[in-house]
Design brief:
Blueprint (H helix, E strand, L loop, with lengths): L12 E3 L4 E3 L31 E5 L10 H5 L3 E6 L4 E8 L5 E9 L4 E3 L11 E8 L5 E5 L4 E2 L5 E6 L15 H10 L1 E5 L7 E3 L2 E3 L4 E6 L4 E5 L1
Antiparallel strand pairs: 1-2, 3-5, 4-8, 5-6, 6-11, 7-10, 8-9, 9-16, 11-15, 12-13, 12-16, 14-15
Length: 227
């Protein structure tokens, strides 16, 4: 768990290269970077000028090797989560090198389902359909049904790759040490309850080696890579 507010954003940073968690609080932010506590979060944008192309893979399936018409046209996908077994869904993105690369993975382990949106509890061998919709402008996903609640002892997990993100994170037209600072220290997961609500940071881990941020999920809403 990395952070519960913007001020604690770099509390824990996964440094897989050295096999341990490292705190970057001692790193000095570039003078040009505004980190006011009350400032809104910045969402990370996709690289390239066009809209990204997505393909979906449910648990137990092979990753697509090429872009099919149906896969490339897909804008969302639904899978079944169960009380008594693990389930997951991965959305792949067509990378700049022409290969399919994992973008976001939602995993619902056995025992994670707790309460339906209507307030009723999951019992016995129960299940529910879950839909993931990736955003075409920023590295974000919407997860439904809204109001689904997970077991706090066995939460769902979400990981989002920023490997295909625009490396100019602060969008000033220059790739410099400020962008590197954002990548290494500030990137994490943000959430919002509804399309009109502001984004807020949640505890997350930044895996710099694999260029992914990950977080435990306790309910469904929108999630995004942010700083």
């Amino acid at each position: 768990m990395v952070r519960s507010s913007r001020a604690a954003k770099c509390f824990v940073l996964l440094a897989a290269a050295i096999g341990s968690n490292a705190c970057r609080e001692s790193a000095s932010a570039p003078a040009t970077l505004s980190l006011d506590a009350g400032a809104p979060l910045h969402l990370v944008r996709w690289s390239g000028a066009g809209s990204p192309r997505f393909a979906f893979v449910r648990s137990g399936s092979a990753r697509p090797a090429a872009a099919g018409v149906a896969a490339a046209a897909a804008t969302s996908s639904t899978f079944w989560a169960y009380t008594d077994k693990d389930a997951s869904l991965t959305v792949n993105v067509l990378a700049s090198d022409g290969t399919w690369q994992p973008f976001a993975t939602i995993t619902v382990p056995r025992g994670a389902l707790l309460q339906r949106p209507d307030g009723s509890l999951f019992l016995g061998r129960d299940s529910i359909a879950i839909t993931l919709t990736p955003d075409t402008a920023s590295l974000a996903v919407e997860l439904h049904p809204s109001g689904l609640v997970f077991n706090p002892l066995v939460p769902a997990q979400l990981s989002i790759s920023y490997g295909e993100a625009n490396p100019d994170f602060n969008r000033d037209g220059v790739l410099d040490s400020t962008d590197e600072y954002i990548k290494q220290v500030l990137l994490g997961v943000a959430t919002r309850n509804g399309p009109l609500d502001p984004w807020s940071a949640i505890p997350s881990i930044n895996d710099l080696v694999n260029q992914r941020v990950a977080s435990d999920l306790y309910h469904f809403t929108g999630y995004a890579v942010s700083w």
